[in-house]
Automatic annotation (TrEMBL), chain A:
This is ABC transporter, ATP-binding protein. Its main location: membrane. The lineage of its organism: Bacteria, Pseudomonadati, Pseudomonadota, Alphaproteobacteria, Hyphomicrobiales. InterPro entries: AAA+_ATPase, ABC_transporter-like_ATP-bd, ABC_transpr_MalK/UgpC-like, Mo/tungstate-bd_C_term_dom, NA-bd_OB-fold, OB_MalK-like, P-loop_NTPase. Residues 4-234 form the ABC transporter domain. The keyword Translocase applies.
Automatic annotation (TrEMBL), chain B:
Its main location: membrane. This is Putative sugar ABC transporter, permease protein. It holds the Pfam family BPD_transp_1. GO terms for cellular component: plasma membrane. Keywords: Cell membrane, Membrane, Transmembrane, Transmembrane helix, Transport. Gene3D superfamilies: MetI-like (1.10.3720.10). GO terms for biological process: transmembrane transport. It comes from Mesorhizobium metallidurans STM 2683. The chain crosses the membrane at residues 12-32, 84-106, 118-139, 145-167, 204-229, 249-270. The keyword Transmembrane helix applies. Belongs to the binding-protein-dependent transport system permease family. Residues 80-270 form the ABC transmembrane type-1 domain.
């Protein structure tokens, strides 16, 4: 078992800084997802931990031991690559066996080890095949088996589901958490798919341009995104973002949406009079009768089923387009004039200029209390 | 449809035949000449029908060349052996030095690596005649003139850049992740080089080795100047057939047939390594 600690990591390529003074701790047995757009530095970070590239500054501690200057083969980590990186001239069996061979295990130990992990990943029947004879799904499982076979205390998974088809990705997304939990290993998992991140991560680190923008549980990232960018990346359909300028009246802080006053939690007091962007998750909006308090008149434009949800595109009187989502099978307006209401408790308010969420510094207190 | 496709096939066949005849004719003609005497070769008009003789081959193998002016000693078999020895050793040395160097240039970008690699390539730019004179003087001072070691050394000018640059390209084509994966699995860099990089660059190494062998085999100028009779390869030795009593076309042809046989055999053997794909579908593109 091993924790992972990164201290002030800096990595530059020529003049470009890929990782900028990055620090991160992953607890023993925890699964941390590194999430972010391509070029954010996720893969570089993973390779630094694996030891195949060296940081320009900073320290890497695995299990409390400083591994910064230790060669890759002595770090004892397991890694699965996005492009699988199988050895094309070896059979699947030999591919999976390489970590065991490096330890000079006996032939019978190797055979037993490879076969048990192959059975776990359901590739026992293709062990004699060369990589070119494997399907993408089998390649991916072989790569995963190779990373798992040596029971490494620290597992690095670099977007292993990137190159497999949607069906398999869905299956693996369900299968992986159990698989990883069973191994008890500390896992760093890189992905660009927010659903994967939400499904697999004990915590998610959202990376962008070489720094961690937000670190928290999937719940926190979704409910309290640090900025507009993160709010937009998590959630499908995407969050509705509308320019607003909050005001105050006797009942508290409110924003005007299509001339209807929507009152916000008192925590947004500081936002009064500032140019803001309000973020409304599609599921925080619902169709209501015209007479209901806070009902906003809209026109239904289109309706699209999305898996277990139905997403409706509506247009406000000001001509702004908004997505409303509701569980499939529940009644809703399908055409013409309608009214929607806002669940103002879950509304998110961002500063227009910086994109930072207003009140995001209170994340810690919210995390502990979740008062309102 | 049937008709046009038939005509097309016929035309294609005819065109292919023409091309093959055009390229193979000299070799076939030389092969035929090697079984004829000088008199039948020089007949005008040339004739396809002749009485084959093995005299040319016997002369080469026994080393006794009988001409109108008397019997001459020729060292053809010795020359052939020299060619084999020099080419094989040179390519072996070049592979031993060049393949690890190519790997270093491909995988480790160190200060001046590009400059060193380019300098090695530039050996191929200079005309051989330009370097020959200073080389001869140095070699005489060093006692390397007319030695196998000296010749093999000079042959590195031909073989090493070729192998280095071709093999380097093949190493660069191996995705670095494959090597990283082997390192992370717990193997040393040397094991990675041996078990991953070498087998995957195998076709490239075979191609480069074959090409270097052909270049070394065909070399003329270096051996002409730096080697005396007993160290000369066939390319230089063939000059002996231009005798005072005329050019011995029959023996020259037989000599050519004998001297292209090893390269041809090697090329046919190495062919299967050359056509083998490199990446073998390990990495999704």
């Amino acid at each position: 078992m091993a924790s992972l600690e990164l201290k002030n990591i800096v990595k530059r390529y020529k003049s470009q800084t890929v990782l900028d003074n990055l620090s991160l701790t992953v607890a023993d047995g925890e699964t941390l997802v590194l999430f972010g757009p391509s070029g954010a530095g996720k893969t570089v970070l993973l390779r630094l931990v694996a030891g195949v590239i060296d940081p320009d500054e900073g320290n890497i501690l695995i299990g409390g031991e400083d591994m910064t200057d230790v060669d890759a083969e002595f770090r004892g980590v397991g890694m699965a690559f996005q492009n699988f990186a199988l050895f094309p001239h070896m059979s699947a069996f030999d591919n999976i066996a390489t970590p065991l061979e490096a330890r000079h295990s006996s032939q019978s130990t190797i055979k037993a080890g490879v076969e048990s992990v192959a059975k776990l990943l359901k590739i026992g029947h293709v062990l004699s095949h060369k990589p070119r004879a494997l399907s993408n799904g089998q390649k991916q499982r072989t790569a995963l088996a190779r990373a798992l076979v040596g029971a490494p205390p620290l597992l690095l998974l670099d977007d292993p589901l990137r190159n497999v088809d949607a069906k398999l990705r869905f299956e693996m997304r369900l299968e992986l958490p159990r698989l990883l939990a069973d191994r008890g290993a500390t896992v760093v998992y890189v992905t660009q798919d927010y659903k994967e991140a939400m499904a697999l991560g004990d915590r998610i680190a959202v990376m962008s341009q070489g720094v961690i923008k937000q670190l928290g549980t999937p719940e926190q990232i979704y409910r309290e995104p640090a900025n507009i960018e993160i709010a937009r990346l998590f959630g499908d359909p995407t969050i509705n973002l509308l320019d607003v300028k909050p005001s105050r009246d006797a009942k508290g802080v409110y924003v005007g949406l299509s001339n209807v006053q929507v009152h916000l939690p008192a925590a947004y007091e500081t936002a009064v009079g500032r140019d803001c962007v309000i973020g409304l998750r599609p599921e925080a909006l619902s169709f209501v009768d015209g007479g209901a308090p806070g009902a906003i008149p809209v026109t239904v434009e289109a309706e699209t089923p999305l898996n277990e949800k139905i997403v409706t595109l509506v247009r406000t009187v000001r001509g702004r387009e908004i997505l409303v989502s509701r569980p499939a099978g529940t009644p809703g307006q399908t055409e013409g004039k309608a009214h929607i209401a806002v669940d103002s408790k879950s509304a998110l308010l961002f500063d227009h200029a910086s994109g930072e969420r207003i009140g995001s510094k209170n994340v810690v207190s919210l995390r502990n209390g979740e008062a309102a | 449809m049937e008709h046009t496709s038939l005509l097309e096939r016929f035309l294609r066949g005819a065109a292919l035949t023409l091309v093959v005849i055009f390229f193979m004719f000299p070799i076939v003609w030389i092969f035929m000449m090697s079984f004829q005497t000088n008199e039948t070769i020089l007949r005008i008009p040339p004739q396809l029908v002749f009485e084959p003789t093995l005299a040319n081959y016997t002369a080469l193998i026994t080393g006794k060349l009988t001409t109108a002016a008397g019997t001459l000693d020729i060292a053809f078999m010795r020359n052939l052996w020299n060619s084999v020895f020099l080419s094989v050793t040179s390519v072996a040395v070049a592979l031993l030095l060049g393949v690890p160097a190519a790997y270093a240039f491909a995988r480790h970008k160190f200060r001046g690596s590009e400059d060193i690699a380019f300098t090695l390539l530039s050996f191929r730019f200079a005309p051989a005649l330009l370097v020959l004179l200073p080389l001869t003087l140095y070699f005489q001072k060093l006692g390397l003139a007319n030695t196998y070691i000296g010749l093999i050394w000079v042959y590195q000018l031909i073989c090493l850049p070729l192998i280095l640059w071709i093999v380097r390209g093949y190493f660069e084509d191996i995705p670095a992740d494959i090597e990283y994966a082997y390192r992370i699995a717990g193997h040393s860099w040397f094991a990675t080089f041996r078990k991953i990089a070498l087998p995957l660059a195998g076709p490239g190494i075979a191609a480069a080795g074959l090409l270097a062998f052909i270049f070394a085999w065909n070399n003329f100028v270096f051996a002409l100047v730096l080697a005396s009779a007993d160290k000369q390869p066939v390319t230089v030795g063939a000059l002996a057939f231009i005798t005072s009593s005329g050019i011995q076309y029959g023996q020259i042809s037989a000599a050519i047939v004998l001297s292209i046989t090893p390269t041809l055999a090697l090329a046919l053997y190495a062919q299967r390594y050359l056509v083998e794909g490199l990446s073998l579908g390990a990495v999704k593109g």
